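User: Fold both of these, please.

Assistant: Here is the first one.
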Amino acid sequence: MSMIKRVRKSGGLGQLLIPLVAMGILLLFNLFRDPGFYAIGVAVNNSGNRVLTGNIISIIDSASELAIIAMGMTLVTAACGGQDISVGAVGTIAGSIFVKALKGFSSINLGTVLLALLACCLVTVLFKLFNGTLVSVFRIQPMIATLILFSCGRSIAYWIVGSATPQIDSPIISAMGMTIPGIPIPTPIFGVILVGALLALIFRFTTLRLYTESVGVNEGAARLNGINPILIKLLSFVILGLCVAVAGVIGTCRMGQVSHKTLLIDIEMDAILAVAIGGNSLGGGRFKISGSILGAYIIQMLTTTLLAMRVDPVNIKAYKAVVIIIIVMAGSPVVKNRLTTLWNRRRSGGLHAASGRG
């Protein structure tokens, strides 16, 4: 198990340096641009409930679906050395299944909502097992394997709900997508906390993290150490499927309806960027879920900042691309190695100077 031990030692806080610096720069920029950017207030929504308001609350709330999907994307990236570009389309299928199941009940209550959630979880897991089989068994590159559902997923969602955009009017659905009466914090934030806590417990009490990183670093060596790479890759896709189902349900409850054209649109690209910005290697291996979550919030803060600066929404993607390129390049192995070399030279030079004075 010497290889697994080396994988364990390869992590560290240094992996979070780039996303932490990027978040710090954005925080300072907004502080000098508009100190009121961080103001948090309390307002009364249309349902008469008191809710927290402000840019920070909006950022944390709006990034919930992205953060949840980024967690699952991190595992697939770490185990398979590639990315799943079908998460947005499959999330739309999950939303369609959720609404279709609820419409099949005479009333919407906590029990029927849980059954509908279970149904869409099962469906998304099946779709992700399909993707995982193509990747792990047939050894198709992940981006190519998931291109199938990326192309047809939203059409499948359309077939499920038809041409209409069915709405679901229920206090429970409103509470899941907005806020729970008496709790001013947006409910989707609790979804991120719950998914993150469950993954943290899994990593704490199982060897999934070590096995996933080992398969991503060297699949052949992992197999020689008794690890089943096919099982680990399939499991990473299953976890991603569950994350996609949760994100799809949150997005559906947030809108109170399902639209196969707009639900989780373009979220797959943002999820991949969140993983990269979080300091995770897109080629597989070691990973930090916390880095991907931080990357999701960085992307959302950047979007909110540009909107606050009254940048035309049409041009926001171009501005985001420039900033993200800078962040990703700063976190690239070439730049990291160069900075490490310069730091070591400076440190050794300082030590020589100190010994000379002595």
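And the second sequence with its predicted structure:
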Amino acid sequence: MISAVVVNHNGGVGLRRCLDSLGPPRAGLEVLLVDNASSDGSPALVREVFPWVRVLAQTANLGFGAANNLAAASAAGESLLLLNADAWLEAGALGRLADRLGSDERLALVAPRLVYPDGRRQFSWSPERGVLGEALQQLRNPHEARAWVHGRAARLASRIAGPPWYTAACVLLRATAFREVGGFDERFFMYFEDVDLCVRLRAAGWRLAEEPAAVARHAGGFARHPQVDELYRPSQLRYYGLHRPRWEQRLIARRLRRRFGDRAVDAWLAPGAAP
């Protein structure tokens, strides 16, 4: 069985398109929706239009990782499809992801080929996060629509900076692997939770892969949240503190202090710092 998990916060029309892409209710697929305190009537819409979807309505916004963990704790599937509310699967994508995951017992995560709604290529991967990886990411981002940056450039970046990580906008995960590493680290409210998960899966001996024959469309892409720095920077600093060498931690902190000031960085570095 596959358990599809959708985390929603005021998803609106996009949420309906997302759930439609999972198809009608059928054996072998359960759909769980964690609603992070939406104010747009999303839970009521889902209960009316998609009565087979199990809605886990929250009174506060738990964040992306914590909401996925909540659903995963009660999911019945041997694999977990994590699908953003602003993403949707093309026909046959779920079956192709499942086939790829089933082809290798040490494969923990399979990512589809991501495209924008108009069909332009979108990054499903990024270089290993770190000073060098972030520099490489800035170099490759302007070329997102070009095929070579998803092939040759991805392989080159892996050799230079380390293995890539895959965005959790759409991934199929082996449930045993996800639970073995403790799921998402809930200290990441938003951003870096998927980077951290990929690092911990690999450290535990699991493999990650992309299945380009499976296609998902994602409206969000790298769209910037209006409070991106307040959300992104605490997670960035936490990730560096957990996974990167001391010199990189000091370097990234200095850069942020020059840009945002000591007070902001001290707040972001405080234990439990989160929106």
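The longest strand covers residues 207-218.
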